[in-house]
UniProtKB/TrEMBL annotation:
One of its GO terms (molecular function) is uroporphyrinogen-III synthase activity. Pfam families: HEM4. Residues 21-233 form the Tetrapyrrole biosynthesis uroporphyrinogen III synthase domain. It is an enzyme of class 4 (lyase). One of its GO terms (biological process) is protoporphyrinogen IX biosynthetic process. The keyword Cell wall biogenesis/degradation does not apply. Its EC number is 4.2.1.75. SUPFAM superfamilies: HemD-like (SSF69618). This is Uroporphyrinogen-III synthase. It comes from Neisseria lactamica ATCC 23970.
Length: 251
């Protein structure tokens, strides 16, 4: 008998999953991707982006998806603007494009953590901050920055489109856990589950990077949810705990 590789179910848009799949492979896991939401660029929003960017004193990047969608439409070579990212994943993605340091919180990956950064107090009153994001994001940080006397402008450069999932050939065997990256993905996934998979998905172990996503999963009926900083951290949990992975016969 040989041990079958455990599978991590990656629940996120397919365009964002390649790095996660590679991370799983490097850790000795297999990855299976489910994408109940996909990303669609907003052509009209991207057309306005260069002018908005030119007006900005600082740019806040809300996600790696925002970076990958917007950066090809911008000239980032001026080296003048202050760039702030929501978390370390976004910081790394943007630094690859900029070739210089990007500001991001070390103690979180949401608007609340970004608000705690000292960079905002160093901007002059009336400075313009451009938010680059998808349609329908949170407005918490924009409101708080306006209270500090800063101007904000919004560049919404992509849509999130719900995608029907096909469970006809879905195999639950060997799926050990799932990694999910937004509350919207959680809601869309559970809304589409066929009855025969409801019990499996409710009892599956979920990892996510934010407490709000964890709460969304619990509201959908997920019984085991852990909040971790990253997918790498989720995979590392299994190095220090004993899990009985499924066995498959030698072929």
């Amino acid at each position: 008998m040989e041990t079958a590789k455990p599978i991590m179910l990656i629940v996120r848009p397919s365009a964002r999953a390649a790095e996660d799949v590679e991370t799983c492979l490097n850790a000795g896991w297999r990855a299976e991707v489910l994408s109940p939401v996909e990303i669609e660029a907003d052509a009209a929003g991207l057309e306005l982006l260069s002018e908005q960017y030119a007006r900005a004193d600082a740019v806040f990047w809300v996600s790696p998806t925002a970076i990958e969608t917007a950066v090809p439409h911008l000239d980032l070579s001026d080296g003048i603007k202050i760039h702030i990212a929501v978390g370390q994943g976004s910081r790394r993605a943007l630094e690859r494009c900029l070739g210089r340091t990007v500001i991001a919180p070390d103690d979180g990956n949401d608007s609340e953590a970004v608000l705690r950064l000292p960079v905002w107090d160093g901007l002059p009153e009336g400075a313009r901050v451009l938010f680059v994001r998808g349609h329908g994001g949170r407005d918490f940080l924009m409101g708080r920055l306006r209270e500090k006397g800063l101007q904000t402008e919004l560049a919404e450069v992509y849509f999130r489109r719900h995608k029907p999932l096909n469970f006809q050939n879905f195999q639950a065997e060997n799926i050990t856990a799932a990694y999910i990256t937004s509350a919207e993905l959680a809601r869309s996934l559970f809304a589409q589950l066929p009855p025969q998979f409801s019990r499996f998905f409710k009892s599956l172990l979920y990892f996510t990077h934010h407490p709000r996503i964890a709460e969304a999963l619990k509201r959908e009926g997920a019984e085991a949810v852990e909040t971790v900083p990253s997918l790498e951290a989720a995979l590392s949990h299994f190095r220090f705990r004993r899990y009985d992975f499924p066995q498959t016969p030698n072929r």
